[in-house]
Task: structure prediction
Amino acid sequence: MNIAKKLISEKEIQEKIVHLANQINNDYKGKELIILGILKGAFIAISDLAKNLNLDVSFEFMSISSYEGSESTGQIKIEKDLDIDISGKNILIVEDIFDTGLTLSSLIDILESRNPKSIEIMCMFIKPHDKQIPVDIKYQGFKIGSDFVVGYGLDYMGRFRELPYLAALS
Ligand code: 5GP
Result:
């Protein structure tokens, strides 16, 4: 399987990151913020975002997968949980891609039960899906098509995460 075509260039992605970072810098000025990165796919976006933040910020990570057959069961599995107490904290989740909405909607439910002060979401790539669970994503990167994509943290069987651009596979 080869890379079919570049969908979004490195330059476009970097410009978007700066734009989102500026919004986040404005919105959280004077506040403490915890960036909650969702592994593995968001690792490049988190790193690029971090370099453009000018805030009192710390970084935490969770690793989440869908149970097999998740479309029918609608469940996620926490592979690595947070090791801090988030009650009373401002949380910004950074996720790679939004498709069915299962991951983010389930994660929000789990985190809200831990009583944070606020939770917002940044997601780099938003796909259309006819049965999408609605989730409010405040900081949105790019709306893309329904093709399977790789690059900028996203993989196909563990490969292609390192690409600095987003591509579709053939
Ligand atoms: P959701 O729970 O919204 O259906 O999907 C989110 C997860 O599905 C992402 O974190 C990612 O792991 C996976 N995913 C959905 N679409 C794609 C895609 O086009 N490419 C890759 N590499 N992963 C995807």
